[in-house]
Amino acid sequence: MRGEAALLAGAWGGMAAAGGEGAEGDSDGGSEELVLTPAQLIRSLEQAWLNEKFAPELLECKPEIIECVVEQLDHMEANLKRAKRGDLKVSVHRMEIERIRYVLSSYLRCRLVKIEKFFPHVLEKEKSRAEGEPSILTPEEFAFAKEYMANTETYLKNVALKHMPPNLQKVSLLKSVPKPNLDSFVFLRVLERQENILVEPETDEQREYTIDLEEGSQHLIRYKTIAPLVASGAVQLI
User: Fold this and answer.
1) Residue by residue, what is the 3-state secondary structure of 183-217?
2) Rounded to whole angstroms, how far apart are CA atoms 72 and 214?
3) How far, in Å, CA of 233 to CA of 238, rounded?
4) What is the dihedral of CA 203, 206, 212, 217, to 10 degrees?
5) With 50 as the cut, is the pLDDT of residue 26 above it?
6) Cα separation of 201 and 206, whole Å?
7) Predicted confidence band at 153 (pLDDT cuts at 50, 70, 90)?
8) Rounded to an integer, what distance in angstroms lies between the CA atom of residue 166 and that of residue 203?
9) How many Å apart are CA 210 and CA 195, to the nearest integer?
């Protein structure tokens, strides 16, 4: 296991320089950027993936993580082309590339599925967000959501609505498409200790109460209660 870990560390070791070069190139505007080690980068990708997979709503996009991972995967592919054929390290590095590529693809698919499922609410949330508030969509996802909504409206009109009485030819997709169920329960692992988390009662006889979340503990709790903690990275959905 130590040998395999060393091989994987070597595979990612050469990518730190590539990530650093990208950061320097984007620093002309004077903005500070967080520099991550390869291991931290993959951990951030896996955390974003699991949160997106288990959260009932579409979460804030992570374009900086996606771009950096794609760049480093390309860097690893280039390194493999220069490696000797038959070298054991090539096979190990190739498996690591495929693993990371799977996580990245699954993360993007999860987001697309949610956009298709909740597209009116996603676009409404994007439309109503305050100036300076981060977008939950990348530009490509926003274009996809708008096109998906336009195609849905056109399909409904051509297939059904135009054949109905005039007073029934309009439909509100915002009211027709179900909203994300923020009251659903999720499993989570606490990454940073949290105090006085307000928990809503489950029945009319109960009252609101507060709990403390200890670092490393795991809980089953209503998503709406801990949604801000997911966004801040204080907890990890599992």
Assistant:
1) CCEEEEEECCCEEEEEECCCCCCCCCEEEEECCCC
2) 35
3) 13
4) -40
5) no
6) 5
7) very high
8) 45
9) 8
Nearest to 119 by CA among 156, 144, 92: 144
Q: 11 near 96, Cβ under 8 Å? A: yes
Per DSSP, 165 falls in state: -
Per-residue tokens: 95? 């498996």
Digit-coded pLDDT (tens) for 176-197: 999 999 999 999 999 999 999 9
Rounded Cα distance between 30 and 26, Å, is: 9
pTM for the predicted model, two decimal places: 0.80
DSSP 108: H
For Cα atoms 231, 233, 237, give the angle at the middle one, nearest 5 degrees: 85
Look up residue 15 and give its two tokens: 């990518």
